[in-house]
Design goal:
With 305 residues, the protein is α+β, with helices and mostly antiparallel strands. The chain folds into three domains: 95 residues, no CATH class; 108 residues, Tetrahydropterin Synthase, Chain A; 55 residues, no CATH class. It contains seven helices and ten strands. The longest helix is centred in the C-terminal third of the chain and has 40 residues. It is rod-shaped, with a radius of gyration of 40 Å.
Length: 305
């Protein structure tokens, strides 16, 4: 039995239109209201004098009044960085993007969408990194609506869509990087913040393009080991720091001992055989590499007794 064919959803594209000036139509509406009042009053006066045409004047005044009041539903105003999507009986008629005071067909339904940049400050998520260590991670996303038709028609709620897809992208990103113990030249969550942020923005842009959303920036705001392993990882980091520090101390001590031996030999301050060189090297390394303060013992006799 063949599976039913799944047809891809049609992708809507924004079409920019210009609406009529609201000030012109406001003037015309006021004129029609004035004519409606005049016709109604004139019809009443004619009716009192039993003149001909009273019914037509009253009827015309009522029609003008109802039409003027109904036409008032077509007025709308747009602020800077705000757009209005026009929908006529379920059909997309276009998007008005310029700010100002406008009038459109009163039957048009207007859906206003903000084009301003918005911040999505995500909650802390508990995920596993590339090596399976549980970590807590959070990010902030700066986004704006780029295509109003896609935002209005291609997804149910573009704001909820941004929130859900941002969480999904962050979880997927965190699972692809190690926290801080990567191999040589490997990007980690802790050490490669710029590369991780760029990767997060790229993933978000791919996911949110369907909703007509443009991602301007995405950065991590929180990164830490989960509480259940935080203490163990802290001890590991402390041990690594101690090892790194001791390596630098030993490297520096060896360099200083080598320099001291060369200086003594070049300036012929004292002549040492191999055994006493070894003793001198041992003593200097103890002094330079020891953690506790060293108290030297002064030998007042000969070096060889």
């Amino acid at each position: 039995m063949n599976a039913p064919e799944v047809r891809p959803l049609a992708v809507n594209r924004e079409s920019t239109v210009r609406a009529a000036s609201g000030w012109l139509w406001l003037f015309l509406t006021l004129v029609f209201l004035a004519l409606a009042v005049w016709a109604f009053v004139a019809g009443v006066v004619q009716a009192e004098h039993r003149g001909d045409g009273a019914a037509w004047l009253i009827g015309g005044g009522i029609v003008l009044l109802v039409g003027s009041l109904f036409g008032c539903n077509g007025f709308f105003a747009l602020q800077p960085n705000e757009a209005a999507v026009l929908i006529l009986f379920g059909a997309y008629r276009g998007t008005v993007r310029e700010s100002g005071f406008y009038w459109t067909n009163p039957f048009n339904r207007r859906v206003k969408i903000s084009l301003r940049a918005r911040n999505l400050n995500g909650d802390k998520l508990k995920v596993n990194d590339k090596r399976g260590n549980p970590v807590e991670i959070a990010a902030v996303v700066v986004w704006r609506v780029h295509d109003t038709a896609q935002a209005c028609f291609d997804v149910e709620s573009y704001e909820h869509y941004v929130s859900v897809q941002s969480e999904s992208a962050l979880r997927h990103l965190a699972s692809g990087y190690a926290y801080d113990e990567g191999e040589q030249d490997e990007v980690t969550l802790r050490g490669g913040s710029d590369a991780v942020s760029a990767g997060l923005r790229e993933q978000l842009q791919q996911r949110l393009a369907r909703a007509g959303v443009e991602v301007e920036e995405a950065r991590l705001t929180h990164l830490a080991y989960a509480p259940e392993i935080a203490q163990a990882m802290l001890r590991r980091q402390q041990a690594e720091a101690v090892i790194a520090a001791r390596q630098k101390i030993v490297h520096g001590a060896v360099s200083m001992v080598d320099m001291a031996l060369k200086e003594l030999a070049e300036k012929q301050v004292v002549h040492l055989d191999e055994e006493r060189k070894a003793a001198m090297v041992s003593n200097l390394l103890v002094v330079l590499c020891g953690e506790a303060e060293v108290h030297p013992v002064v030998n007042t006799g000969t070096l060889y007794n």
